[in-house]
């Protein structure tokens, strides 16, 4: 058997020669001085040699380990040289199968509305793809996943972190099912972060409403963030319904906003009456963004709608993040309109809530539109009064 001293002291000769170790391992010494490890084996009656690397980059101990691994393949009837070629092809193929590629493919398999797919893709692009999007999906480890989740929570977005965790896990499950990953690296770290407890914001008082709207008036945010916030309060529509509003949905002459079914949570078209304040604001805005598809175009890509995250960021800057969230506008509106004496049926219709009573939901098709027109104009007028009172107090 060879020793490291034998290998180190082997000198080149005019002709190639080999120093034998054991079990087919030998050190091939070439006239050029290159020393290469070789494994000699016989498979199906044919003698062959398998390269194991060069000495001293590959030590004697490592060469023996590689030789033993090759011997095990031969015992199974597998040619180690052919297996190495297959492994290299597989590695090259795996390198092309990135997380982003599989994630986009997974999204296309979902029977979701386009708006839902776009929201999920937006989250992946903002939170996940920048970290692991271009990595081979088999190379992603729990450490990579944990880093994404911790960073997202640290920047104050635990809900987004929870969505990222669920989405990444679903993508990995899909990759495993399609034989492009061996396991889900999200699973080991699924409980590493504290559970995200949903905090339902209480309704704002009339003084708080006025101060919030007054703060936005005095905030140096973009005009469309301010206008988006105002339209949300004037209509009590969901934040995403407002931020993704399209000009084709709005009829200013009739003071109506017709939100198509595919953009509604209940997948049912919703007609929203627009108070005079909203019509006036939208007419002015139309001169600025009317040539675009969306009423509130995105900041970086004017062909897409602005993100609800822009509203949340503005609230964070203004110090409202712990007290109020965009969706809490609806809770506040419902509470205050009930206090103002409006019928619950009209309020629920304005909020596009489905009736919890199955019989009523099946037979009650009324939208109370005329009643809602009066109600929402009164609501808008009160918003003006509350904002003016807050301005006087400031």
Automatic annotation (TrEMBL):
<feature type="domain" description="Core-binding (CB)">
    <location>
        <begin position="97"/>
        <end position="176"/>
    </location>
</feature>
<comment type="similarity">
    <text>Belongs to the 'phage' integrase family.</text>
</comment>
<feature type="domain" description="Tyr recombinase">
    <location>
        <begin position="199"/>
        <end position="376"/>
    </location>
</feature>
<dbReference type="GO" id="GO:0006310">
    <property type="term" value="P:DNA recombination"/>
</dbReference>
<dbReference type="InterPro" id="IPR038488">
    <property type="entry name" value="Integrase_DNA-bd_sf"/>
</dbReference>
<keyword id="KW-0229">DNA integration</keyword>
<dbReference type="Pfam" id="PF13356">
    <property type="entry name" value="Arm-DNA-bind_3"/>
</dbReference>
<protein>
    <submittedName>
        <fullName>Integrase</fullName>
    </submittedName>
</protein>
<dbReference type="InterPro" id="IPR010998">
    <property type="entry name" value="Integrase_recombinase_N"/>
</dbReference>
<dbReference type="GO" id="GO:0003677">
    <property type="term" value="F:DNA binding"/>
</dbReference>
<dbReference type="Pfam" id="PF00589">
    <property type="entry name" value="Phage_integrase"/>
</dbReference>
<dbReference type="InterPro" id="IPR053876">
    <property type="entry name" value="Phage_int_M"/>
</dbReference>
<dbReference type="GO" id="GO:0015074">
    <property type="term" value="P:DNA integration"/>
</dbReference>
<keyword id="KW-0238">DNA-binding</keyword>
<keyword id="KW-0233">DNA recombination</keyword>
<dbReference type="InterPro" id="IPR011010">
    <property type="entry name" value="DNA_brk_join_enz"/>
</dbReference>
<dbReference type="InterPro" id="IPR013762">
    <property type="entry name" value="Integrase-like_cat_sf"/>
</dbReference>
<dbReference type="InterPro" id="IPR044068">
    <property type="entry name" value="CB"/>
</dbReference>
<dbReference type="InterPro" id="IPR050808">
    <property type="entry name" value="Phage_Integrase"/>
</dbReference>
<dbReference type="InterPro" id="IPR002104">
    <property type="entry name" value="Integrase_catalytic"/>
</dbReference>
<dbReference type="InterPro" id="IPR025166">
    <property type="entry name" value="Integrase_DNA_bind_dom"/>
</dbReference>
<dbReference type="Pfam" id="PF22022">
    <property type="entry name" value="Phage_int_M"/>
</dbReference>
């Amino acid at each position: 058997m060879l020793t490291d001293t034998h290998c180190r002291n082997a000198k080149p000769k005019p002709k190639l020669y080999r120093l034998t170790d054991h079990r087919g391992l030998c050190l091939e010494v070439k006239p050029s001085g290159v020393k290469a490890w070789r494994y000699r084996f016989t498979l199906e009656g044919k003698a062959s040699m398998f390269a194991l690397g060069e000495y001293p980059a590959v030590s004697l101990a490592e060469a023996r380990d590689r030789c033993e691994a090759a011997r095990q393949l031969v015992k199974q009837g597998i040619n180690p040289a052919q297996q190495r070629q297959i492994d290299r092809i597989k590695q090259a193929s795996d390198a092309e199968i990135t997380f982003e590629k599989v994630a986009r493919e997974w999204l296309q398999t979902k029977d979701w509305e386009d708006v839902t797919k776009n929201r999920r893709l937006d989250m992946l692009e903002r939170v996940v793809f920048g970290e692991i999007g271009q990595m081979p999906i088999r190379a992603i480890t729990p450490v990579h996943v944990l880093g994404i989740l911790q960073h997202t929570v640290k920047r104050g977005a635990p809900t987004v972190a929870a969505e990222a965790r669920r989405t990444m896990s679903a993508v990995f499950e899909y990759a495993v099912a399609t034989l492009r990953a061996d396991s889900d690296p999200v699973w080991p770290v699924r409980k590493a972060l504290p559970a995200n407890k949903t905090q339902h914001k209480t309704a704002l008082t009339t003084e708080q409403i006025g101060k919030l709207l007054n703060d936005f008036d005095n905030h140096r945010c973009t005009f469309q963030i301010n206008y988006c916030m105002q339209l949300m309060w004037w209509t009590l529509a969901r934040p995403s319904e407002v931020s993704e509003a399209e000009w084709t949905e709005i009829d200013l002459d009739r003071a109506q906003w017709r939100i198509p079914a595919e953009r509604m949570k209940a997948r049912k078209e919703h007609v929203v009456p627009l108070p005079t304040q909203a019509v006036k604001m939208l007419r002015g805005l139309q001169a600025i963004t009317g040539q675009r598809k969306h009423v509130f175009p995105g900041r970086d890509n004017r062909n897409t709608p602005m993100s609800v995250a822009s509203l949340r960021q503005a609230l964070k800057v203004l110090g409202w993040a712990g007290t109020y969230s965009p969706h809490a506008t609806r809770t506040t509106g419902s509470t205050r309109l009930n206090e103002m004496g409006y019928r619950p049926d009209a309020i629920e219709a304005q909020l596009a809530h489905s009736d919890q009573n199955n019989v009523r939901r099946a037979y009650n098709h009324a939208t109370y539109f005329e009643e809602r027109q009066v109600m929402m104009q009164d609501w808008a007028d009160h918003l003006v009064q509350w904002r003016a009172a807050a301005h006087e107090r400031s």
